[in-house]
Design a protein that fits this description.
Blueprint (H helix, E strand, L loop, with lengths): L25 E4 L2 H9 L11 E4 L6 H4 L5 H12 L6 E4 L8 H9 L5 E4 L12 H14 L6 E3 L6 H6 L3 E3 L5 H5 L6 E4 L3 E2 L8 E2 L8 E3 L4 H10 L3 H12 L6 H13 L16 H17 L5 H8 L2 H15 L1
Parallel strand pairs: 1-2, 3-4, 3-6, 4-5, 6-7, 7-10
Antiparallel strand pairs: 8-9
Helix pairs in contact: 4-8
């Protein structure tokens, strides 16, 4: 199944050319948008597990929608434990803490009578893999946790679903948490002049907010954008409408998955298989690989000037456009 709701977002629709599911028995998808991506990419043999692909929902959503988990009771207990002083709450949950993003959030909201929750995913156990990120988090938390009772740094091991359950607005960079915020109709905000990198030394790039982000604003506009979003009567309804495009079987995902597992163990028919839109076409896959290798060779070394001139010819230019379209689909 997917690591996150936006896995391989820069390669959509076909993440399977880099994620070969054909070595597995079953593929699991969370909802309509991913079913559409898979069907669009079903010509790719890599996208076909041996027993098929199934729409089962998102297991993490069961924590919210399955009554067995008492989600709302636990949210009330957590709110009481944190002793949040204000009515409205903002959650800051980035992909990677670099370049002072947490400070931008705190400075924008510190005087707004809004609770600020800080949730990072890197734990002390993972500090060896992300030393710069860990040090950035430690320094930022030490600075901001002392700035008032309305600023709370949450345990990184706490489920993001509980963190979202406490919140009215999410602030993130390009994390998949923006998709999970849809489950609770929570609008998300990204900052246009933030950057992304996984340590303090590599070259940064501008963030690429996901399509489900409600607002993208500049760093200087962040505070006012949060206030307007909290007060917007349309924000939650808009998120609910988007949610249904991405998630299916809310609260029932685990049951559907285990039905598939039970059927496989019993060697019986697995029901609900998604019908592919295309037959697997391995020659196209090989053609793509050959074109990719040829392009890398042509764009390097002494051949590059000749290739640049060749691309200007109308027949070659037309062929390249068709190849790019094929790769996108």
């Amino acid at each position: 199944m997917l690591h996150g709701m936006d896995q391989g977002r820069t390669k959509w629709p076909n993440i399977w050319k880099n994620e070969p599911w054909d070595v597995f028995d079953v593929g699991l998808l969370p909802g309509p948008s991913w079913v559409e991506r898979w069907q669009t990419s079903s010509w790719d043999p890599n996208a076909h597990p041996r027993r098929g692909v199934f729409e089962v929902g998102w297991p993490k959503a069961d924590l919210i929608f399955n009554p067995a988990f008492d989600f709302q009771i636990k949210i009330r207990e957590l709110r009481d434990y944190l002793e949040l002083p204000f009515e409205k709450t903002v959650l800051y949950a980035p992909s990677f803490e670099t370049d002072g993003k947490q400070n931008d959030v705190i400075q924008a909201l510190v005087d707004k009578n809004i609770n600020i929750l800080v949730k990072h995913w890197v734990t002390e156990y993972e500090r060896g893999s992300f030393p710069d990120i860990w040090e950035n988090i430690v320094q930022a938390n030490a600075r901001h946790a002392r700035m008032g009772k309305h600023i709370r740094v949450l345990d990184p091991k706490l489920s993001i679903m509980y963190c979202l359950g406490l919140s009215d607005v999410l602030i993130t960079d390009e994390s998949s948490v923006a998709y999970e915020a849809l489950l609770l109709n929570i609008p998300s905000i990204s900052v246009s002049n933030w950057v992304m990198r996984v340590n303090n030394n590599e070259k940064s790039r501008p963030i690429e907010p996901s399509e489900v982000v409600f607002e993208v604003c500049s760093r200087d506009e962040l505070g006012n954008t949060v206030v307007k979003t909290i007060q917007s009567p349309k924000a939650a309804a808009h998120m609910r409408q988007i949610r249904d495009k991405h998630y299916a079987f809310l609260g029932q995902s685990v049951y559907r998955i285990m039905d598939i597992v039970d059927a496989m163990v019993a060697r019986s028919q697995v029901k609900g298989k998604i019908i592919p839109r295309f037959r697997p076409n391995r020659p196209i896959l090989y053609l793509q690989k050959m074109i990719s290798i040829a392009a890398r060779i042509a764009n390097s070394g002494p051949l590059k000037p000749y290739w640049e001139n060749l691309k200007k010819l109308r027949p070659i230019n037309s062929l390249l456009r068709k190849v790019r379209k094929l790769d996108e689909n």
